[in-house]
Design a protein that fits this description.
Strand content: 25-35%
Largest sheet: 7 strands, antiparallel
Order of helices and strands: EHEHEEHEEEEEHEHHEEEHH
Helix content: 25-40%
Number of strands: 13
Shape: globular
Protein name: ATP-citrate synthase ATP-grasp domain-containing protein
Radius of gyration: 19 Å
InterPro entries: Citrate_synth_N (IPR056749)
């Protein structure tokens, strides 16, 4: 297995395209802005940007963006444009790493209450996948290893709705929310398995007005499954960690991949 992180926008796109009908998930809408993106061109592709309140944040594998002041919330299009101008190409320290902010994602702002935020994570192990859930999510979720409830899913098995309800959602009071979350978790896990994800963390997942929203996502794919999943993944880039530019080999393969009808990747084995 070669577990490689992907951009947040990529992960949300894959989930939106492949999750089964019948969940309460609101399809993810987003626009990606890089240093060479022309604002007017992106507005033309995504006219909703000028009609709704927005969220803007870097999409460069940076953890705890909210704590770092790297999330603009409830902004107008004009405010987002200023926010981008002030930060694009600027240096940023994240822990011990220092890098430049070069890629951002803009999404619709979802109005909700703090008690509608939850935490959900799926991660792969050698003999089983683990689904973690906490009924309180967001920037102040704390130590999820200590507070989240776990459901172990052995390899080649699938969780039942009763398992999810009884084990994961025992602290969720609303019967309606439980019903929506059960359906969503089972459908999401199917995507996780079918598309060879190795890690998927949603914090927060918001349930409001009987709809589900993915506000923040971190995800990894098994890069060695490219020959199986390339068509369903779509265009996937495996970016280097924040603070490190692509190695020459990575940049060379990426350039060849862009020019070739084949799917060319650098493989990392861990």
């Amino acid at each position: 297995m070669a577990s490689k992180a992907i951009y947040e926008a990529t992960g949300k796109d894959i989930i939106t395209r492949h999750i089964a009908p019948g969940t309460a998930l609101v399809p993810c809408r987003f626009a990606v802005f890089e240093q060479d993106t022309v604002w007017e061109d992106e507005i033309g592709k995504n006219p909703w940007i000028t009609k709704e309140k927005l969220v803007v944040k870097p999409d460069q594998l940076i953890k705890r963006r909210g704590k770092l002041g790297l999330v603009g919330v409830n902004l107008t299009a004009a405010e987002v444009r200023r926010w981008l101008a002030e930060r694009s190409g600027k240096g940023q320290q994240v822990g011990a790493a220092v890098g430049k902010l070069r890629r951002f994602v803009v999404e619709p702002f979802v109005k909700h209450e703090d008690n509608e935020e939850m935490y959900l994570c799926i991660q792969s192990g050698r003999r089983s996948d683990t689904i973690l859930f906490h009924h309180q999510g967001g920037v102040d979720v704390g130590d999820v290893d200590a507070v989240a409830i776990r459901l172990e899913v052995p390899v080649d098995t699938f969780p039942s709705g009763e398992d999810v309800k009884r084990l994961l959602l025992k602290n969720v009071k609303s019967a309606t929310v439980k019903r929506l979350i059960i359906t969503f978790i089972l459908s999401l896990y199917q995507v996780y398995v079918d598309l060879h994800f190795t890690y998927m963390e949603i914090n927060p997942i918001v349930v409001t007005g009987e709809r589900i929203y993915l506000l923040d996502l971190a995800a990894k794919l098994d890069q060695t499954a490219d020959f199986i999943c390339a068509k369903n993944w779509g265009e996937v880039t495996f970016p280097p960690p924040f603070g490190r530019d692509a190695y020459p080999e990575e940049a060379h393969i990426a350039d060849l991949d862009a020019k070739s009808g084949a799917s060319l990747k650098v493989l990392y084995f861990i």
